[in-house]
Automatic annotation (TrEMBL):
<dbReference type="InterPro" id="IPR001753">
    <property type="entry name" value="Enoyl-CoA_hydra/iso"/>
</dbReference>
<dbReference type="GO" id="GO:0003824">
    <property type="term" value="F:catalytic activity"/>
</dbReference>
<dbReference type="GO" id="GO:0006635">
    <property type="term" value="P:fatty acid beta-oxidation"/>
</dbReference>
<dbReference type="Pfam" id="PF00378">
    <property type="entry name" value="ECH_1"/>
</dbReference>
<protein>
    <submittedName>
        <fullName>Enoyl-CoA hydratase</fullName>
    </submittedName>
</protein>
<dbReference type="InterPro" id="IPR029045">
    <property type="entry name" value="ClpP/crotonase-like_dom_sf"/>
</dbReference>
Amino acid sequence: MSTQPVRVVRHPDGVVELRLEDPGRGNALDLPTAEALRDATAEVAADPGGAVLLRAAGAAFCVGGDLRAFAGRGEETGAYVHAVATAAHAAVRTLYELPVPVVTAVRGAAAGGGIGLALVGDIVLAARSARFRLAYTAMGLTPDCGATWLLPRLVGPRLATDLVLTNRVLTGDEAERLGLVSRVVEGGEVDEAAYRTAAELAGGAGEALRAAKRLLRDGAEDGLSRHLDEEARLIAGLAGSDEAQARMTAFLAPRVRTRVRSGQSAPGSPESVS
């Protein structure tokens, strides 16, 4: 086990893994951990590979801010918490802005700041036994790590308000049903499933995946007309690329051979992906 609370692991298949590695503390965020997370995400951003996987060691994904580090600081508490939040927010911002797909694997508790880290991924896999809880107002605090920005966009303002104000716990199944996570798997399978998903994305059509991700992000702010123009520009630009041409040819080849053998069509006949 690494002595660092956060580690970057680069895999030969193009997956760049960002791993929280302080399981004895539930991967809680004190200042050293938040700064390590900030620095590690900056390292990932400099070379994100084909896909990024965010996961954690131990029984909990991230229990949020380390209350033991926050308490008992007197007049210095506000400055300390601001420093933790600023470093953690730099990490969340970097993860959100990565051009490649980000896959998150959540086991155990995701609470407080761990909510923002869990949900910032493009694809979020959760163990069925995972537990999601904001918990801030129960401690006399307000949310950070992007929770009040991400939640309304994922589940709508009404449910986001409920989760923030009541601090109720969501299971993995409930999180999937409400749209917080992409899908749930059994607890012992979440790391493998998340890695497999990241590896498949890393081995996919890189330019198309990056462009599709950018369209999805920009679409939340664009008007429809402008967004349609951008979709047309990007698909046209990619269609003539070597990668797209090779993938389309490979997709069509077995279908064309089958139809030629059966006398149903000739090479060059129109095909679709349906």
